[in-house]
Predict the structure.
Amino acid sequence: MPTVLVIEDERDLAELVAFHLEKEGYGCVIAEDGTLGLAEARRLKPDLILLDLMLPGMMGTEVCRILKGADQTSGIPIIMLTAKGEEIDRVVGFEMGADDYVVKPFSTRELMLRVRAVLRRSTEQAAKSANISVGGLFIDTDGHRVEVAGEEVTLTSTEFKLLMNLAERIGRVQSRELLLQNVWGYSYVGDTRTVDTHMTRLRTKLGSAGEMIKTVRGFGYKLEEG
């Protein structure tokens, strides 16, 4: 059964989340500060991490940055939990590699939906084995690696998923709403500029290959060679 690591310093909330996770059939481990959470993540290599942003010992963003920057833990999906709802905090979380973001107070039903969606997305991604090559762009789907003209490019997990969504549907236009659903794994209620922000960073990182990502005005994006 999938194991979820909950890194949350509010004990009552952590235990409530753990109770509902176990009801859904997940194994659950709780860590109450950032330093301990980082150590547990390295030890357990859980299937998913629920990570509070404001933590004693080490901030959640720093925990996320370290985990996403290490080969052994970079593939573990992370959902950020925080009382902050400002866009800047969401952007910082996503820049560190977080896969999703839930603002407190949240309903446990909503959280369980997010957990299922992120785990499903992670499982589906792991099941795909065929590499993709378009122009000078090469995607190693098993190793979550991207190369442009033979040079490796470092992407966050969200950027990689965005690129995969386009590359698996080459030449087909993907709406912003559909990309939000497919990449973030749920019906996103909010500003679709989230997609634009990530797409701009993705194009910049891909350099010359970023020119293959075309904007379809008023609709979305597509990847096409040449």
